[in-house]
Amino acid sequence: MSTFWDEYGLLHVQPNEPSENGILFASEYWALERVHNHPIFEGDKALRSTVVNENTFQANPPEQGGHFSHDNMTGYKCLHYNIYGTDGLTPILKWNDRFWLHPRDILFYLALRMEGLFGFVFVLLLLPFLLVSLMRRREITSGKCLWFLRLTTLSMSQCPWLSSVATVYILLSNLILSVAHGNEPWQDIFRIYFKNPNHPIHEQIEELYD
């Protein structure tokens, strides 16, 4: 691996330093590509490298034996949704022989799965979780990055129930985050999280404010 990307189509924090969250970071990158109306060329490669079978997923690179967390599942579902318009019927409560009972994630997964009016209700129920994350201290950014991915994915949904409420949430997020992060809050957040100035996500985020 000579860049931030590896041979599995996954993105990492530093070049030549694989991390277990490669699918999550790749999903954030490809979501931004879709925001900018660019084609998602390599996203399906990242999906294929992560799935072992319908209930087993591997953090990559696989030889690292990394932990496939609920954050990685969020990344996987968002990437699949942004490419194919569905969550791929991936697990909601249990994978890799373990239950993942995070209310925030369960609500988000159900919104992607069900869409329509029921999905709209699940997104409404996410609001308290969103507000808690937005109001954390400036230096706490990982949860905010995840919310950017969730809301961006929902806002680009073909389901108007999801896209309409997500658009409102994004406007609300920008307003709240501007207190701690300035007029370009997402750029500040991703600069804090991805400290390497050459990380490919930075160029994508900067394009939001051009």
Briefly summarize what is shown.
The chain has helices spanning 22-35, 43-50, 70-84, 103-114, 116-125, 127-134, 142-155, 160-181, 185-193, 200-208, and strands at residues 51-53, 56-57, 94-95, 98-99. It is built from ten helices and four strands.
Overview of the molecule:
This protein is mainly alpha-helical. The chain has one domain (22-208). 58% of the residues lie in helices and 4% in strands. It has helices spanning 22-35, 43-50, 70-84, 103-114, 116-125, 127-134, 142-155, 160-181, 185-193, 200-208, and strands at residues 51-53, 56-57, 94-95, 98-99. The strands form two sheets. It has a two-stranded antiparallel sheet. A hairpin with a 2-residue loop joins β1 and β2 (56-57). α4 (103-114) runs antiparallel to α5. The longest helix has 22 residues, at 160-181. The radius of gyration is 16 Å and the shape is globular. The protein starts with 21 loop residues before the first helix and ends with a helix. The model has no long low-confidence stretch (mean pLDDT 93).
- The counted number of beta strands is 4
Number of domains: 1
- Principal-axes geometry comes out as globular
Order of the strands making up the biggest sheet: 1-2
Q: What is the average of the pLDDT values?
A: 93
Helix count, DSSP H or I runs of 4 or more residues: 10
Order of helices and strands: HHEEHEEHHHHHHH
**What Rg do the Cα atoms give?**
16 Å
DSSP strand (E) fraction? under 5%
Structural class: mainly alpha
Instruction: Tell me about the largest β-sheet.
Output: 2 strands, antiparallel
How far do the termini sit from each other? 31 Å
> Fraction of residues in helices?
55-70%
Identify low-pLDDT runs. Answer: none
